[in-house]
Amino acid sequence: MSYKIGLVGKPSVGKSSFFNAATMNDVPEGAYPFTTIDPSVGEAYVRVDCAAPEFDETCTPSVGYCDDGTRFVPAKLVDVAGLIPGAHEGKGLGNQFLTDLNEADVLVHVVDFSGETDIEGEATEGHDPREDIDFLEDELDMWYLDVLEKGLERYRSGYNGEEKHVEEDLAEQMSAFKTNKDEIKQVVLGLGLSLDPDEWEREDKEAIAREIRKRTKPMLIAANKMDKPAAQENFAEITADSDYDHLTFVPASAHAEKALKKAAEGGVVDYEPGAADFDIVGDVSNEQEEGLEQIREFIDAYGGAGVQQSLEAALFDVMGAIAVFPGSANGKSDAEGVFRDCFVLPEGSTTEDFAYHLHSDIGDGLLHGIDCRSKRQVGSDHELEHRDVVEIVTTG
Ligand SMILES: Nc1nc2c(ncn2[C@@H]2O[C@H](COP(=O)(O)OP(=O)(O)OP(=O)(O)O)[C@@H](O)[C@H]2O)c(=O)[nH]1
Ligand SMILES: [Mg+2]
């Protein structure tokens, strides 16, 4: 199982360009709204510092790859159509297509920071990206509200007489969002509401939808098109605006990332995805060199092209996920290789969660874990940390 990251945003912000840069796919990109209609799913990677060098080992990854001590762990990326204000009333392509994001664990909201596209994705000048940030959450909430309303219909259509629990019907209807009846009950009670939906006003339902959306779709903002000066100005202004302090922004240029990866494929540069620098190793024309030097200046100033950084911040910062390596405390490698796996687990995962992630039999037979760095025993309820290397000891 790998994590799923969804790309959202109004049309023409560069979702598909970001998707192509991250996954090296070739889905259509265009400077007009609704270039994308059907969704695409591709394989992207998140970087994790490999633990193998600390143990004087060379890893042999079973999935993804390792480049000079940097592990590239697969994560699924989903590109969908653009969303515009009023989508829940059918504007643009509506919001039905968002069901393609049902199973996304986290969203990256791609925003055109250059201000050169209006709220519907048409070319303009001087548009304030703050408007885009504000409307998108509302549209996502309306999508959740639609599904919540269907859950209420389900609740009301049940037979009379039978004891009904609204959280069960809502959980059933919203199960694709990876929520459950306990969480829904917690949300409803947490808002000071009763579990009788006949007492809910429209704004109560909206509040419930918003809270479930926030919990099940944490979100990060990728400030795209940062290769343009106007975007850099907006970025400085908006990241200094205290109204937006609660959000995580990552400056990005899908164009820069794609150009560098293409140049690397063509043997022109030596570039590791996400790095803040590269070397020119092939023959380049003056024009090409000039373009590359501009990109160099940009990634040097912002610490990278931002595509990798967005995906990693979404998983590891916004969601709080951790990467864990199965290891061997006495340094023995198994026949198939060493440091083959690096698993991404939810925030707060324990030794026991890790054991069950490996296999249900391993979870059932768990005695304890061993932290391979300190060689200390760790209990089954011990909370693991990012980049821990753990051996699981079982009865088997
Ligand atoms: N300067 C610059 N332009 C970009 C960047 N990323 C995308 N663009 C341009 O923005 C336009 C829209 O790009 P798309 O990737 O098609 O945008 P989208 O969000 O997928 O659009 P829809 O599919 O219509 O929702 C294209 O002309 C891209 O070349 C970037 O990082 N920098
Ligand atoms: Mg697109």
Automatic annotation (TrEMBL):
<dbReference type="Pfam" id="PF01926">
    <property type="entry name" value="MMR_HSR1"/>
</dbReference>
<dbReference type="GO" id="GO:0005525">
    <property type="term" value="F:GTP binding"/>
</dbReference>
<dbReference type="GO" id="GO:0016887">
    <property type="term" value="F:ATP hydrolysis activity"/>
</dbReference>
<dbReference type="InterPro" id="IPR004095">
    <property type="entry name" value="TGS"/>
</dbReference>
<keyword id="KW-0547">Nucleotide-binding</keyword>
<dbReference type="InterPro" id="IPR012675">
    <property type="entry name" value="Beta-grasp_dom_sf"/>
</dbReference>
<dbReference type="InterPro" id="IPR013646">
    <property type="entry name" value="YGR210-like_G4"/>
</dbReference>
<protein>
    <submittedName>
        <fullName>Translation-associated GTPase</fullName>
    </submittedName>
</protein>
<dbReference type="Pfam" id="PF02824">
    <property type="entry name" value="TGS"/>
</dbReference>
<dbReference type="Pfam" id="PF08438">
    <property type="entry name" value="YGR210-like_G4"/>
</dbReference>
<dbReference type="InterPro" id="IPR027417">
    <property type="entry name" value="P-loop_NTPase"/>
</dbReference>
<dbReference type="InterPro" id="IPR012676">
    <property type="entry name" value="TGS-like"/>
</dbReference>
<feature type="domain" description="OBG-type G">
    <location>
        <begin position="3"/>
        <end position="272"/>
    </location>
</feature>
<dbReference type="GO" id="GO:0005737">
    <property type="term" value="C:cytoplasm"/>
</dbReference>
<dbReference type="InterPro" id="IPR031167">
    <property type="entry name" value="G_OBG"/>
</dbReference>
<dbReference type="InterPro" id="IPR006073">
    <property type="entry name" value="GTP-bd"/>
</dbReference>
